[in-house]
Amino acid sequence: TIPPQLSNLTGLQHLALYNNSLSGAVPPHLSNLTELKDLALDANSLSGTIPPQLSNLTGLQHLALYNNSLSGAVPPHLSNLTELKDLALDANSLSGTIPPQLSDLTGLKSLALDTNPLSGTIPPQFSNLVGLKLFSMYYSSLSGTIPSELSNLTGLDSLWLFRNSFSGTIPPQLSSLMGLNDLWLFRNRLSGTIPSQLSDLTNLRSLFLSQNSLSGTVPSQLSTLAKLVSVLLSQNSLAGTIPSQL
After folding, report:
1. Of 112, 101, 111, nearest in space to 139 by CA
2. pTM
3. Which contacts qualify for 132-137: CB closer than 8 Å, 24 or more apart?
4. Spatial CA neighbour of 182 closest among 233, 134, 128
5. pLDDT digits (tens, 9 = 90+) for 119-157
6. Closest of 196, 182, 186 to residue 229, by C-alpha
7. What is the DSSP letter of 99?
């Protein structure tokens, strides 16, 4: 287990215990480490819930709890960590909905909540996270539509929403994400056509839309995406001809 006595090291700025075999709970007393900038407890066997007391670490810039066995909800009080740049809670057993309060973390560069049994929708308030480079929420139980408001995240490199239960159409507004390298929406319940506006994503390297219920034709405009390396459109209801330019 992580010894609670570590909380006595009140001048500590970096605590890295990742990739070990630590078990037990995340000690709430770590909230005493008010000078902490980096807390990395990932790749262990930690269990229990994420202590809401961690929200007292208001100088924290990097919080990595991924690849453990943490359960319960994502604490909305994490929104107090306004200096946070990276929040990695992926690969746990976290459940419930995604707290919209996380949209207050406007300095975030990376948000990873994937590989958890989270349900509900993506809060449209996440459009406030304009500094995001990585938005990773795959392999969960999220539903509803993909919010068109995500088009506000114009600095995104990677949008990973695959293996969920998203329905509705692919928002054509995503064409505003001009820096996007990866658009991975496969294995959902998306319907409608592939928006021709995706051809505006001139930095796109991978477009994964397979295993949905998409219909219509493959837009010929996609052939203008000179940086594309991988396109997966299998297991849909697409018709017509394959654009020769592809």
Report:
1. 112
2. 0.95
3. 132/108, 132/156, 133/109, 133/157, 133/158, 134/109, 134/110, 134/158, 134/160, 135/111, 135/159, 135/160, 135/161, 136/90, 136/110, 136/111, 136/112, 136/160, 137/98, 137/113, 137/161, 137/164
4. 134
5. 999 999 999 999 999 999 999 999 999 999 999 999 999
6. 182
7. P
